[in-house]
């Protein structure tokens, strides 16, 4: 059964302008670095409404077990610690079966 991890990230107002691009590049790289990741889609918000999150992403997995393994994979952990956590003020996630 397919399994998806969907996230919204809001950047800190004082985040480096390159931070969003670094996060997007890091997310895209996960498909080649983490076993079980089937696809990654990530994009910046269009900027049409104040208060929206800045980045949306969706990572598709073959199943829940692949998502669970991804959580502790070194490439994912490094992305969160080095690029995402220092640049964001808010985050929201959902995991969806099917």
Brief write-up:
This protein is an alpha+beta fold and 98 residues long. It contains three helices and four strands.
Question: What does this entry look like structurally?
Answer:
- The protein is of the alpha+beta class and about 100 residues long.
- Helices cover about 35% and strands about 35% of the residues.
- It is built from three helices and four strands; from the N terminus they run E-H-E-E-H-H-E.
- It has a four-stranded antiparallel β-sheet.
- The longest helix is centred in the first third of the chain and has 15 residues, at about 20-35.
- It is globular.
- The termini are close together.
- About 15% of the residues are buried.
- Find the count of extended strands (DSSP E, 2+ residues): 4
Radius of gyration: 13 Å
Largest sheet: 4 strands, antiparallel
Instruction: Report the total helices.
Output: 3
What would the average pLDDT be, to the nearest integer? 96
Q: How much β-strand is present in the residues?
A: 25-35%
Structural class based on helices, strands and sheet pairing: alpha+beta
Low-confidence stretches: none
Helix content: 25-40%
Shape by Cα distribution: globular
Write the layout of secondary structure elements.
Blueprint: E1 3-11, H1 19-33, E2 37-44, E3 55-61, H2 64-71, H3 74-84, E4 88-97
Features:
98 residues; alpha+beta; four-stranded antiparallel sheet; 3 helices; 4 strands; 35% helix; 35% strand
């Amino acid at each position: 059964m397919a399994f998806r991890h969907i996230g919204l990230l809001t950047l800190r107002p004082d985040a480096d302008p390159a931070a969003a691009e670094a996060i997007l590049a890091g997310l895209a790289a996960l498909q080649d670095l983490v076993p079980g990741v089937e696809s990654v889609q990530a994009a910046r918000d269009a900027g049409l409404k104040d208060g929206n999150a800045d980045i949306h992403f969706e990572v598709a997995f073959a199943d829940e077990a692949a998502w669970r393994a991804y959580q502790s994979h070194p490439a994912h952990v490094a992305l969160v610690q080095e690029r995402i956590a220092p640049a964001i003020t808010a985050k929201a996630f959902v995991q969806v079966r099917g």
